[in-house]
Amino acid sequence: MDHLACYTPADLAGRTPPDFSTFRWKLLAQGDSWFSNARAKLNAHANLLQELVFKSNTAAVNCAGTGNALSHMVDLESSPDFVRLLTGPDAPTWDGILLSVGGNDLIAAARTPAQNWNGEPIPLELRLLRHQTEWGPPSAGVARYFSEPGWATYADYLRANVKHLLSLRDQGPSTGKPVFMHCYAVPMPRPAAAEGGDDLGAGGPWLYPALKAYGVPAADWAAVSRLMVFHLAQLLKSMAADKEAFRGLFIFDSTAVPLALAAPGSTGISGDWHNEIHLNHSGCFKIARAWSEHIEMVLEGKHLIPVPTGRKGRGSSASS
Predict the structure, then answer these.
(1) Interatomic CA distance for residues 226 and 185, integer angstroms
(2) Reported confidence tier of residue 319, pLDDT bands at 50, 70, 90
(3) How far apart are the C-alpha atoms of 100 and 102, rounded to whole Å?
(4) CA-closest candidate to residue 82, choices 95, 71, 98
(5) Which of 70, 178, 206, 253 is the most exposed place for a label (fewest CB within 10 A)?
(6) Can you say whether the dihedral through the CA atoms of 73, 79, 83, 86 is positive or negative?
(7) How many helices (H) and strands (E) would you count in the chain?
(8) What is the C-alpha to C-alpha distance for residues 71 and 102, in angstroms, rounded to an integer?
(9) How far is the C-alpha of 289 from the C-alpha of 291, rounded, in Å?
(10) What sign has the CA pseudo-torsion 56, 57, 63, 67?
């Protein structure tokens, strides 16, 4: 097993560009801080790409690179290196595209306050949390704090952006190639900030102050975080299941990977977490090892091979 060889667009333009003929699989990557190669982020927390391992030699050009990673899914449109390497006249044919997107948008939606700067209420369809006066009945559990209208807005936004990404892929020589996205792990809302600024315009913490501002009881914070992350996972998996609208989209369910939760109230590294929303090296290692198997199975076409079901018939394995 070899680690994924990671390059940046600058490496391709250097005096001695990498020789991709030595690699069986060539991937293009873009994403948020889970993919970022910025030195400050590598010094602070782990990079999911660097923990990927494959049986066959595999390389990736990571457009999250050494600059700022994506703050929001919509920023894909303003990522010139990524768009050029995917759709430009000299774009290579990639075997697959790796994406880490959607998580920052989810957190930003959760951080939207109940009122704007001049005290006017922000409609429920524009935020993910409900103010205390808007909570549902206790019988609804932690869903009483959650804005379903706001979730519908977020889901429409994410679907539209993923469809746009797939249309970009189909504008270049990599048309129809698999696009790999991961779900996110469930963070523990806690006062664990980043060492410096983050991709959301602040140093964190992120969910912790939002849940406090909305008056959600601390005993329910972990469950509210789980509810939001599982909603995102189900949304992504439903898109991958729609083979016509989202052709070639493969989703890895990171929520199924057992991780050590951070301790409630902790302010630094705890469990498999570096801060409130970023994994440390052990957390990245666990998710990346499982995701690597998923990616390589698709690249080798093994997800198309019928497997025994334990009954008389045979069925296809579902890896997306």
Answers:
(1) 9
(2) very low
(3) 7
(4) 98
(5) 253
(6) negative
(7) 8, 10
(8) 9
(9) 6
(10) positive
CB 28 within 8 A of CB 82: yes
The label of the residue with tokens 């990977």 reads 257
Model's pTM, two decimal places?
0.90
List CB contacts of 8: < 8 A, sequence separation 6 or more: 37, 61, 62, 63, 65, 66
pLDDT digits (tens, 9 = 90+) for 4-25: 999 999 999 888 999 999 999 9
Residue 86 half-sphere exposure, CB side, CA atoms within 13 Å? 30
Residue bearing tokens 């930003």: 108
> What tokens does 146 get?
């959650």
248: closest CA among 292, 299, 282? 299
